[in-house]
Amino acid sequence: MTSITHLPWVEKYRPRTLDEVVNQDEVVATLKNVVASKNVPHMLFTGPPGTGKTATAHAFAQELYGPRYLEDGLFVEINASDERGIETIRERVKTFARTVPFSGVGFRVLLLDESDQLTDAAQHAFRRTMEQFSATCRFILAANYSNRIIEPIQSRCAVLRFKPLTLDSVGRMLRKIAEAERFSLDEEAVKAVYDFSVGDMRKAINILQSAAALSSKVDEKTVYQVMGLVSRGEVRRMLELALDGKFAEARELLRNLIYLDGHQPQDIVSSMSREITALNVSDEDKMKLIDFLGETDYRIAEGGTPEVQLLAFLAKLSLMKRV
């Protein structure tokens, strides 16, 4: 699968205020109450990647301190996955935390992103830092997996849980970007992007930007091309031809996918696995096909000729009957 790097649109369309954060109503309501009261606890933001943990922390700081929260040195972000050791806690974190701010709020905020990547020793050192400097600093920890954060730290934090984003939430953002960047985006492409991103907004935006760079009209086929996978329509057509007994046509389409389009056999197998459940055959035959496909994947991985193995699967499909 094609690797999607971090692209500029992720930062360009990041939420700037808490009202722009989507699909996290409970988290936003809690943070708005915190801003109104100025009674800020240490907080642990936990949830799947790409659901807005880091962006929400920035939006919270902006509403707490104002638009110059970064320039005034009232908020700093440290990525623990880059600096995992105890020295990071002893030097960077303590240096920031011990400094008394000049703002009216009376404390600064430090975001420790990817905090579940900290070593156990670093987490125990951080626990002590939280106690020592609670008068001058509040800590926000962002973690994909809360069970990797030691219990003493969790007990000192208000835990806010982020949910995976829905298709509706991701679709609204993708359509907003398409309108602002002036390119065409159809609904099937939105669904394809969501299927690949699985509720991860950062990944969804990166996929969309890569697709838009390839074509000014982003459709489902463009998304699959960017991801290095076979279009669902082509795979479905190949399976339907085999199921209708048109083995020669299905074989020709398979050869085009492998030799003309350059798709990897493993990617074709993955695409087949997603389409089997939609075939018009009995549930028992679907289970047999999944079993056959698993065997085909194993044989290819063990060095079998990909074309021969995939043709054998299509041959078995041709012997089945429609419901």
List keywords for this structure.
two-stranded parallel sheet, Rossmann fold, alpha/beta, 5-stranded parallel beta sheet, 9% strand, Zinc Finger, Delta Prime, domain 3, Helicase, Ruva Protein, domain 3
Fold and architecture overview:
- By secondary structure, the protein is an alpha/beta fold.
- The protein is 54% helix and 9% strand.
- The protein has helices spanning 9-12, 25-37, 53-65, 86-97, 120-132, 151-154, 167-181, 187-197, 201-214, 220-226, 232-243, 247-260, 265-275, 283-301, 306-318; strands spanning 43-46, 75-79, 108-113, 137-143, 158-161, 184-185, 217-218.
- It has a 5-stranded parallel beta sheet with strand order 2-3-4-1-5, with helices on both faces. It has a two-stranded parallel ribbon with strand order 6-7.
- β2 (75-79), α4 and β3 form a beta-alpha-beta unit.
- The mean pLDDT is 88.
Overall, the morphology is elongated
CATH superfamily membership of the largest domain = P-loop containing nucleotide triphosphate hydrolases
Structural class: alpha/beta
Which bin fits the share of residues in helices? 40-55%
CATH class of the largest domain: Alpha Beta
User: Rg, please?
Assistant: 25 Å
What profile does the largest beta sheet have? 5 strands, parallel
> Which range does the strand content fall in?
5-15%
Strand order of the biggest β-sheet: 2-3-4-1-5
